[in-house]
Amino acid sequence: VVSKVIVELVDQFKHKYSIKMILDVLEIPQSTYYRWKHKDKEKDKVTQKVIELCEENNFTYGYRKITALINQLYSASINHKRVQRIMRGYNLNCRVRPKKSKKMGKPYYKTDNLLQRQFKANQPMEVLTTDITYLPFGNSML
Questions:
Q1: Which of 22, 54, 71, 140 could, after both became Cys, cross-link 105 (CB 3.0–4.6 A)?
Q2: What is the pTM of this model?
Q3: Mean pLDDT by 10-residue block, N- to C-terminus, for the chain (142 residues)?
Q4: Residue 113 phi, psi (nearest 5)
């Protein structure tokens, strides 16, 4: 918070006074000021990349996948924890869809047990059986 205030303050007064003079009055080293200034710009770029990737993929990817995409597309490698903090801060977490359970349909018709567990036959193809209990039929199972 202090770093942002100082960077803004220096930006306001740098037209009237030199940056070095302003920093001497504030007792802040130039290297610290430029580090703060550079860090804010870099943060904005990474945040913008994360927001763009989340919107492109309709918020279906989590922080691991977004991190992998950023590291793949851009030369700078970024830590997954940083991406996770950005996504949490902007509420960009992946939207999990609830799992759909298979709903069993009602049987069309039931057949009677004609064999009564007597599987011996006099000729081939006289007694036929099957073991299928569920058949997919459109959106339901029969």
A1: 140
A2: 0.47
A3: 83 90 90 83 80 89 92 86 91 82 72 84 86 76 77
A4: -80, 95
From the list 68, 78, 93, the residue with the least C-alpha distance to 43 is 78
Q: What does the pLDDT read at residue 8?
A: 87
Q: Which of 44, 57, 43 minimizes the C-alpha distance to 94?
A: 57
Element (H, E) at 140: strand 140-141
Read out DSSP for 81-111? HHHHHHHHHTT----PPPPPPPPBPPPS---
Residue 3: count of CB within 10 angstroms of its CB: 15
The alpha carbon of residue 42 and the mean position of all alpha carbons in its chain are separated, in whole angstroms, by: 22
